[in-house]
Amino acid sequence: MKAGHVVTIRINPRDCQSVLDVLDAAGVPRKALSFAQCVSLSLGSLLETARRNGLIPEPDEFEYLNRMSEYMTPDRRRKSARVADALHNLGGRLRSPALVGAEGPSAAPPSPANPPAVSEEEDSPEVRAAQERLTQLLIKKEQAEDGGPWSQEDERNFQQLYSIVYPNG
User: Fold this and answer.
1) Are 88 and 163 within one domain?
2) pLDDT, tens digit, for every residue of 106-115?
3) Distance between CA atoms of 45 and 77, rounded to whole angstroms?
4) Count of domains in the chain?
5) For residues 86 and 139, is the Cβ–Cβ distance under 8 A?
């Protein structure tokens, strides 16, 4: 038996490409690797980089069971799967947060001569707020399938927010 925790995750298209970029930057040859191995290696590389830069602590091997126990119960896995499904419905527009203080040594502070990098696909504050609220409603909708409340008002809000987040359907 191998050490560690086996997980199944969905990687959005933007991050799929970045997984390959991380491995290329680390000099890892990808020819004989499965994509799952690429994801595992790139995550490990990014975590090691964060440890070395002091952004996260070195893990204490004796704390593993204490810290991971809440993620090892069957009920938690079912609930997590429903939440993951709801988040997946947001598609490629969902962005993972960056680590605070992880800008790197080459990042110059924003100024009029050096504006902050903004992609053409950067969402407005209205769209980001709609994404957050839509995520909450998706989770509530998943819970409604298990007998939780789902009102006409929830459905109207859901449709309105969906049209904001996904204007092209």
Assistant:
1) yes
2) 544 444 444 4
3) 26
4) 2
5) yes
